[in-house]
Amino acid sequence: METKVGYFASIEQYKPMDALEQSVRAEKVGFDSIWVDDHFHPWYHSDAQSGQAWAWMGATLQATKKVFVSTCITCPILRYNPGVVAQDVCNTSSNVSKTSWSCSWSR
What we know:
Blueprint: E1 6-9, H1 16-28, E2 33-36, H2 53-63, E3 68-71, H3 82-95, E4 101-102
Parallel strand pairs: 1-2, 2-3, 3-4
Helix pairs in contact: 1-2, 2-3
């Protein structure tokens, strides 16, 4: 069994551009995957950020070469309208040529 190590890009904690730069560096030093939180409202009270995970994933997929990219969880019922999530998935898949991305779902 092969061990793989991923990097968690917290766009609630860091500005989206900072998290993108961190993710590019993570790929360069050998991380196998990049995971991003998909929360509408940040959990942090001070210096909180509220980046949109799907837009951020598109930028990250364009900026990286081989690393696997995914949301940690996307909740298409309680947090977002399912149609908006479907649109995000379609836009992401049509705008990137890379196939190594995914989405984790929750109800």
